[in-house]
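Dear Dr. L.,

I hope this message finds you well. Following up on our conversation about the binding site, I have prepared a predicted three-dimensional model of the protein together with 3-methyl-2-oxobutanoic acid. For your records, I am including the exact sequence and ligand specification that went into the calculation, followed by the structure tokens. Please feel free to forward this to your student if that is useful.
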Amino acid sequence: MDKVTIVTLSEKKQKREPIVMITAYDYPSAQMVDEAGVDIILVGDSLGMVVLGYENTLPVTMEDMLRHTAAVARGAKRAMVVGDMPFMSYQLSPEQALENAGRFIKEANAHAVKLEGGEEVLDAIKKITSAGIPVMGHIGLTPQSIHRIGGYRVQGRDAEQAEKLKKDAKLLEEAGCFSIVLEAVPAELAAEITGSLSIPTIGIGAGPHCDGQVLVYHDVLGIFQEFKPKFVKRYANLRKEIVDAVSRYADEVRKGDFPDEAHSYR
Ligand code: KIV
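The resulting structure of the complex is given below.
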């Protein structure tokens, strides 16, 4: 079993083999998605919403991310593990960005880090990659900037925004990113950006022409149901399965049917 590396991902782009990425936040989910054969596991700061119950990703801390990334790294055998740098862990200075990126590698065993933004984060990316740490970029809808963007909206619909996204993608590639997430971008624009880069793009709400796709684990499995963006496809309804199973357990305890002899010691 060959481990997925940035070389594997670059080869996949050249061979036009789609790259599969999904988020995970703990040891068992990492084991399961790894067993399912995904290429990249992103420990996304989306954990703030789907695991910790925050309204958005902004309150997520380095300590939250390191704890969850380390758990995922223990569960992943083949997939590349990417740790998502939380809000204000890389914006202060390139030195701060490198220090925190280094913690993902040294303390949490991540293979790479991801950070949001275009032109404004180039110095941080250059500093991190110059220390040998692979960086995944993230442009389009960048949830850490929701207050500036004005909510969770599709990006790049007007010509000015589209030009900025194309320019940012090129700059991220030149700064040394090994891949770029394109979030909530019109499919045609994502296709154009993908065709203009030698590094793979990973789309989420960016249509079918990216080099890979990413979705959030709790969305794919129907565990998180507070809202559902258009791009989310649910492949299971585990929320219902879990509520049903726990209701049956509660029912049996209340009726005195559990534990029975088969589940008791003599
Ligand atoms: O935090 C996250 O899960 C992400 C993906 C949605 C790309 O950034």
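In brief: The longest strand covers residues 135-140.

With kind regards,
A. P.
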